[in-house]
Amino acid sequence: MTAWLGLGTYRCLDVAEAALMAASRGAGWVDTAPNYAIGRAEMSLAVVLAAYPDLCVSTKVGFIPASAGHIGVRAGALSATDAQRGHCLAPDYVTWQLARSRLMLGRVPDLVFVHNPEHACPDGEITDRLYNAFLALEEACSQQIIGAYGVATWHGFSSGLFDVPTLVELATMAGGPNHHLWAIQLPVSLVHLAPVAQALDGHGPLADALAAGLEVFASAPLHGGEIPGMVTPELSELINPGKTPAQTALAVVASAPGVKRVLLSTGNPEHWRQAAEAVGRPPLSPDVLRRVVDVLGT
Questions:
Q1: How far is residue 45 from each of residues 51, 77, 175, 276, measured CA to CA in Å?
Q2: Which residue range(s) make up the domain with 161?
Q3: Is the pLDDT of residue 224 over 90?
């Protein structure tokens, strides 16, 4: 399976400029969130999405932009406590934020991720939190306010707080067999190799998502820019001879079983060109991936 390169906007200094650069170079997907770029990311993308109507966009719901907290409270969508906490997945807030995101983006988002549902979640409440959010998201899908939904997590899978079969079960409870749960997003990189190692053995979130027919978005593939400096010439030669450290690291992520989209945050055209070349190549073999895991561990 060949992965595709998409733009992640979390670390972009100028979201509109980065999105325009990526779209003009053939990017098919841009991922954002209401709280990115100090709450301005979605609005910044609107002009690019208008210029490139075939560019797909995913946003998120969960974290509350500081500038929107008091507006949500006044609208009755948020409690003052949730606004102060900065994260909420209550159905009223989910519904309110989806409408707000659609307005900011200037179009229906193709996909909305539940953003780090594990954040500040009391023990034993994650299932109810996810189910109630899914109910609101299914209703939004039925009203064509969004196209589909997913779960974007940093620690949810790795901590064992939830797994893909649980997400599918909750989505089926909320939306029936034709539910609109469509994707997961999680960190996959040379630092976060556990999902790759698990997938090679036929289990874990990547393998489970593949079996369930869910798209996998790999976030932080260069771990905030730290990974290229960690790739030695010997490691690069083992993985991807003749390529740059960044290309080597991205090739591993793009080759992980089940990964469909690799989200890179950059506004640099040359970095994008090199990344697109690495991600667009035929995947590395399972044997090469196993050697990488053996050398670096999980």
A1: 10, 25, 30, 21
A2: 4-296
A3: no
- How confident is the model at residue 1, as a pLDDT? 61
Determine the average pLDDT of the residues in 51-64. 98
Q: What tokens were used for 254? A: 């793009």
Mean pLDDT value of segment 114-132: 95
Structurally, the chain folds into a number of domains equal to: 1
List of residues 6+ apart from 167 with CB closer than 8 A: 130, 151, 181, 184
Distance (Å, whole) CA 185 – CA 215: 8
Residue whose entry in the numeric block shows the structure tokens 């999680």: 186
CATH code where residue 190 lies: 3.20.20.100
Residue 196 — left, alpha, or beta (φ > 0 → left; ψ -120 to 50 → alpha)? alpha
| pLDDT at residue 240, rounded to an integer | 82
DSSP state of 284: P
Q: What is the pTM of this model?
A: 0.97
Mean of all residue pLDDT scores within the chain: 95
Place of tokens 């953003």: 115
What is the DSSP annotation of 90-159? -HHHHHHHHHHHHHHHTS--SEEEEE-TTTTPPTT-HHHHHHHHHHHHHHHHHTTSSS-EEEE-SSTTTT
Dig out the tokens for 58 from the structure: 């995913």
